[in-house]
Amino acid sequence: MSNIYGSNSRRDERTYKRYAPQVDRRTRCIGDVTLNLENPLRGIALEHLMTDVEIFARERGLMNILDDLKKGALLAQDSQAYKRYNYYTDADIKYLEDEVHHKWSQTGALYYVVVMSSLAAAIQGMDETVVNGAQLLYTKQFGIYSSGLSPSRNSWLVGVVNSAPYLCCATFSCWLTYPMNQWLGRRKTIFVCCLISFVTCIWSALTGSWWHLFIARFFLGIGIGPKSATVPVYAAECSPAAIRGALVMMWQMWTAFGIFLGTLVDLAFYYVPDAGGINGLNWRLMLASAGIPGLIVCLQAPFAPESPRWLISKGRYEDAFNELCRLRFSRVQAARDLYYIHVLLEAENEMKKGRNRLVEMFTIPRNRNAALASWIVMFAQQFCGVNVIAYYSSNIFSQSGFSDPAALAASLGFGALNWLFALPAVFTIDTFGRRNLLLSTFPCMAISLLVTGSAFWITSKNGRLAGVTIGMYLFTIFYSPGEGPVPFVYSAEAFPLYIRDIGMSFATATTWFWNFTLSITWPSMSSAFKPQGAFGWYAGWCMILWVLILLCVRETKGKTLEELDQVFAIPAKTHAVYGVRQIMYGVKKYLLFQNPPLVDLYEMAVESEKNNAGRMGTRNDGAHLTGTEDG
How many CB atoms lie within 10 A of CB 271? Predict the structure, then answer.
């Protein structure tokens, strides 16, 4: 069944297999690297594999588990090996089949990791939104909106304080991720980041001026940046392959829950009166409350397993095996994952030798296309305008005529919708595809923002309140299953394995930089252009981003690593023409009621390749006839 843009995913996949375009030498090289990293054990003979395992066990001091390692290596090479060899017990076979048929039946230790990772994600959301309600109160206490100061200066002060953590993330803390993970490991990095979050949240609650609050929130960014990059990786490295993607999705889902929790806390503490000589006890409790989940994670972390992959990278194989035994039901499963992680790390280290991976991310067309698409979806996550609502919804509702408590209650509705509509994304992202979700939701988000901004022209108070609320809620409903979860999932799969860590760092830095830009500029933009113009600005960006996604973002749903290399190897010009033809298809089918043929990207790529080859042949023939061919 085709979608409204004239592409059919099943047809595309069949066409891919028939018309897979040829790629240049450097992309073929990447493909070889990718295939080797996808399974370095592919094609190794049984005797050779068993010899390699014995050498590995002897060198790493693991001779006591040699039998488990041999059975595990066979499974690492071929997941169906237990059906072909009689080395496995009935219990081994049961656990291996449960991985496929009952993939959510996992050990208590793994679910402990899931709970800890979910709480860490919730911290992220709370850190972002408790200031949403607090700014209604601390701005008055700190005299930011006093009559003696210019409105422009006031707006910039609010933006500076709110954006402080993201300034830290973009300029400093994101770049601490690699060294912290190298020196401390995943678990201790999460512990340190959550401890910093807890301390800085308490510090924020004790401040007495706007600049003091700015400093405290800037240091909060040290707890946000490395954690945002580490927790999804930690969860993925502890998880079996069958549920790894779903756990990466949970980061976004529980961040959305943290946003909801932050708005709930704002409303709960609003009416707390000052006591004990403390002025502004209500907003101080709001800011401090965001540290509580961080403290809980700090208490959890010492009892959580360390990432087996990190332990293996440090040569601690016995510790890694013990942790894998906690995370898996059987020793054979643990031995399989231990040996597979080992050979994968060996292959990765070999592939990285002699390569400038940062340069290759932009000089090789396949990588450059992936970097461009990842940049667009990460930039779009900010410039669609969502964090205007996440950080300033209370102010926006207050400007529209709500009382402060009613504005907080309306913000709670935003937080609840953001979380509830993030839940279906676990299914829709693999059903409808990443690109189709974005193309379908961005026009709706633009219309919702226009409704929100236009509502400020309504003279009737009740009509204005209804218009603003409906517009913002509709925007949230369309954002949460689309642009909410897609960017991190897309960026994690777009890059080839050998540069994926650099690619994700690039993508993460992108989102935090534009997050900072949006959060610092909104108050002054809203003051200068009024809410109508400011919301119109981001509605315009939603349509610009729709065009960029149509032309430059490739579909990655259901593709193997090898197929992704082919998808991103298609020239950018060819994919842009494909996007334009999809628009023409929609116009002919749904406006002119014609029955045009479906648009097929791979056929277009092959056709373009043949045309280029024909032009090259003609050029060579002409050079030969004129005697100018290089020889």
Answer: 8
Other beta carbons less than 10 A from residue 29's beta carbon: 13
Location of structure tokens 């003979």: 45
The answer to whether 296 touches 190, Cβ cutoff 8 Å, is no
C-alpha span between 585 and 607 (Å, rounded): 19
How many distinct helices (H) and strands (E) make up the chain? 27, 0
Is 238 within 8 Å of 307 (Cβ atoms)? yes
Residue 320, pLDDT score = 96
Closest CA to 457 of 571, 536, 562, 545: 536
- Selection from 284, 288, 282 nearest residue 267 by Cα: 282
Percent of the chain with pLDDT over 90: 54
What are the backbone angles phi and psi of residue 278, rounded to the nearest 5°? Answer: -95, 120
Give tens-digit pLDDT for 10-27.
555 555 444 445 555 555
Among 555, 580, 552, 579, smallest CA distance to 566 is for 555
Please choose, from the candidates 375, 631, 330, 603, the residue with its C-alpha nearest in 3D space to the C-alpha of residue 509: 375
Handedness of CA 487, 488, 491, 492 (dihedral sign): negative
Does 374 score more than 90 pLDDT? yes
The closest alpha carbon to 502, from 363, 391, 361, 349, belongs to 361
> Rounded mean pLDDT of 231-259?
83
Tell me the residue type at 108: G
- Mean pLDDT value of segment 270-296: 94
DSSP secondary structure string for all residues of 274-328: PBTTBTTHHHHHHHHHTHHHHHHHHHHGGGSPPPHHHHHHTT-HHHHHHHHHHHS
Q: What Cα–Cα distance (Å) separates residue 552 from each residue in 271, 372, 450, 577?
A: 49, 7, 25, 10
- Provide the 10 A C-beta neighbour count for residue 306: 22
Distance CA 90, CA 107 (A): 19
7 closest CA partner among 604, 609, 611: 604
Kindly state the helix (H) or strand (E) to which residue 242 belongs, with its residue range. Answer: helix 241-269
Measure the CA angle with vertex 442, ends 434 and 457; round to 5°.
160
Number of neighbours of residue 610 by Cβ within 10 angstroms: 12
For tokens 């891919």, what's the residue? 16
Q: How far is CA 500 from the centre of its chain?
A: 13
**What contacts 540, CB < 8 A, 6 or more positions away?**
446
What is the distance between the alpha carbons of residues 120 and 124, in angstroms, rounded to a whole number?
Answer: 7
> What is the tens place of the pLDDT at every residue in 432-458?
888 999 999 999 999 999 999 999 999
CA–CA gap between residue 200 and residue 190 (Å, rounded): 15
Please state, in angstroms and rounded to a whole number, the distance separating the CA atoms of residues 552 and 547.
Answer: 8
Give every CB contact of residue 325 below 8 A, 6+ residues apart in sequence.
331, 334
CA distance 429 to 554: 14
pLDDT recorded at residue 357: 82
Six-digit token pair at 569? Answer: 């190897």
